[in-house]
Amino acid sequence: MLLFYLSLTQILCYDGDERDTDTGCPKRLGRNCRCGYENYRAWAPDRKVYITNCTNTGFTDPSIIEATPTETEVLIFTGNKFNRLPWNLLGIWDDHEKLEVIDLTNNQIQEIQGKTFHKVNNVKRLILDHNDLYIVSTMNHPRIFSNFNNLRELHLTNAFTEQVDSKWYLEDLKQVFLSSELKKLQKLHLEQNEIWEIRDNDMFCDLPSLLDIYIGDNQLTEINFSLDCLEKFRYLDVSFNKIRNLKSTTRHNIDKVFGRSPNASGYESQIDLHGNPFRCDCEMNDLYDWLRTTSARIVNKKEMRCYDGFPDYNAGKRIENVEFLECAPKKHQEYSSHTAVTSTLLGVLIIITTSLLLVVLWINRITVKEKFSPLIENFKTSLQYSTLEKQEETPEVQV
Length: 399
What we know:
- This protein is an alpha/beta fold.
- The longest helix is centred in the last third of the chain and has 33 residues.
- An 11-stranded mixed sheet has the order 1-2-3-5-7-8-9-10-11-12-14, with no helix packed on it. A two-stranded parallel ribbon has the order 4-6. A two-stranded parallel ribbon has the order 13-15.
- The radius of gyration is 39 Å and the shape is elongated.
- The protein contains 6 helices and 15 strands.
- The chain has a single domain, classed as Ribonuclease Inhibitor (Leucine-rich repeat, LRR (right-handed beta-alpha superhelix), Alpha-Beta Horseshoe).
- About 30% of the residues lie in helices and about 15% in strands.
- The relative contact order is 0.05.
- The N and C termini lie far apart (about 145 Å).
């Protein structure tokens, strides 16, 4: 019985590994995948790596990923439809010691179970961009990344469902960071996730090796999360958010983190603020002065522009080229002024209309007299008859 089981296992393994001569891939992956050594400059610019690439193949069953060849260094399964990733996505038989990159972009993934990823000890880059992840309620699996012991980069651009407010799933994401123990994670991408607010001040403090946070193209109006808890931190991207101004406490924190001496690796911390809709009026005076004197290293500083402001011609200007920052009129003053102007215009209009009417009447006085004379005569006659009737009435005699 044992020999039969071993023989059956060998046959199944052999069949699963049988290669297509044209694609270089196991036949189970079909003819639309491509396997072999290629350039992948985004990860290894100086050498060719073994890539298993199944892009837009129309797969709907994620168990197909189990057929990934063991020599694969870069695994690309993008543009398919995998709503729910099962346990043991890469199988339970083969080791994938060479695997360093997993790209599961744009697969409509909603749920990743806690035991989905095994045998991924050497994976350093995980890309889950443009999916529809729920990490709340019963679909929350805090240890989904727990086997990525050497993960360096986690890409979650536009990765989460829009059906749940970001302030809720961010709380669960923080729990994922804590439970998965991503102690070697250096880069975290969270762009395009409709993030309005990060309520936990220590959101990123459980990632001790974190160097870079990319949180651009969201809806943040303030930078209210702690970064000084990260000793190695070097780069924050908050470009193209909804920041209109920076509070004094925020400026102080930026000075503290991005004005400090280079970290242990010799990197100087930097922050990118460009693309935000800054309002350039008198409320910006402190920020304007700070930008000219701060020791914080601000990249793309010259590209920081006014979205609007007062005077109105500040709109669109580079902040460094702004010359005047004035206070816009108060709303009640604007209302009073508007009312006064309206009243004046109405009075002028009445005078002009009355004058024109009098002029027209004067010019046509003969015609007007001819038209109205019969009416006047009739009115006089009627009035005379009424008077005579009253005079002829018999007074009532009191007995």
